[in-house]
Amino acid sequence: MTSQPSTDLPVNADALRAEVQSKYREVATTPHGEFHFHTGRFLAKHLGYDDAWVDPLPDAAVESFAGIANPFASRHLEAGEQVVDVGSGAGFDTFVAAGQVGSDGAVIGVDMTPEMLEKARRNVDVVGADNVEFREGFVEELPIDDGWADVVISNGVFNLCPDKKAAFDEVFRVLTPGGHLQFGDIANNNPVPPEAMQDIDLWTG
Amino acid sequence: MAGALAERVFVSKLEKVGFTNVTVLDRQPFSMAAAADYPLFTPQLLDLMERLLPSSARQQVATSVTVTAEKPV
């Protein structure tokens, strides 16, 4: 899929997306491979996810989790809420959200990496989550109707978006008035030199 | 990692889009050693940071944050 990112960006958006897809494709297809970072249940525990939400999930829905924070730490979702998981990967946070909103709610996961989407869609059947759907798309161009979501969640995704304003504009668009955005991400403690902003390798790793 | 924002910039950008009650609820600062556990920090990046950052800055190279914001009614 393609999109028309702004030309006034610090980095080539298409090249960055390709690099991100390459990195996360590996996590999707070989979740027990040799990574320099933690994944799966160990990581979820490390980040403070409630066992009550994680333990019931099958390994296939957890093993490719590679988030950096716990977006549910601030607020548990309420039964019946409609939720969008931006950059849903193999669906770990999506399925946690689905458990919290219950059968009267609905969760849509959006991701741009085909291998992650394929795995996430397989996991819908494994988990037996009737209230979950996965769609292909970019954060800056969400395939969601205006005002559909009560809540938007995300985990370690915005730092990988070349156009932050476009990403936040899209999240704002899909939220209903009074809706919540709750996300985890990395904040930089040191200024990034302009030349580093143009280096794709320094965005993804 | 080059795309990560400073905390105050995160808040500012969300407010400019129209969000209100933007709140950073949880902060987990981490050192270079701890950063190695996160996907964004490859060994190559850590090597680069070790060469570029003064030792005083290596104890807190980034912060994992949890942020909430609301779309006004």
The succession of helices and strands of chain A, N to C, reads HHHHEHEHEEHEHH
Helicity of chain B, in percent? Answer: 25-40%
Number of domains of chain A: 1
pLDDT averaged residue by residue of chain B: 82
Structural class of chain B: alpha+beta
Describe the structure.
The complex is a heterodimer of chains A (205) and B (73). By secondary structure, chain A is of the alpha/beta class. Helices cover 37% and strands 18% of the residues of chain A. Chain A contains nine helices and five strands; from the N terminus they run H-H-H-H-E-H-E-H-E-E-H-E-H-H. Chain A has helices spanning 13-29, 40-46, 51-54, 59-62, 92-101, 114-127, 164-174, 194-197, 200-204; strands at residues 82-86, 106-111, 132-136, 149-155, 175-188. The mean pLDDT of chain A is 86. Chain B has a domain at 26-68. Chain B is elongated and about 50 Å long. Chain B has a two-stranded antiparallel ribbon. Chains A and B meet through helix 1, helix 7, strand 5 and helix 9 of A and helix 1, strand 1, helix 3 and strand 2 of B. Strand 5 of chain A pairs antiparallel with strand 2 of chain B.
